[in-house]
Amino acid sequence: xxxxxxxxxxxxxxxxxxxxxxxxxxxxxxxxxxxxxxxxxxxxxxxxxxxxxxxxxxxxxxxxxxxxx
Length: 69
What we know:
58% of the residues lie in helices and 17% in strands. The protein is an alpha+beta fold. The strands form 2 sheets. The protein has a two-stranded antiparallel ribbon. A two-stranded antiparallel sheet has the order 3-4. The longest helix has 40 residues. The N and C termini lie far apart (50 Å). The model has no long low-confidence stretch (mean pLDDT 80).
């Protein structure tokens, strides 16, 4: 995120403005900013879980190799 920069369907939204999407959904600048922050957090969590999965997979492979020798 870039400070106060918030986008609504690719267009910048300033504080005090509303984001109105097709289908009638409308969000304030602050609500849209919270949604963007939440999405960023979910992305970081996904990357962390993916990295953890790789570590577990590799360590399981090493354990299996050591057990077979």
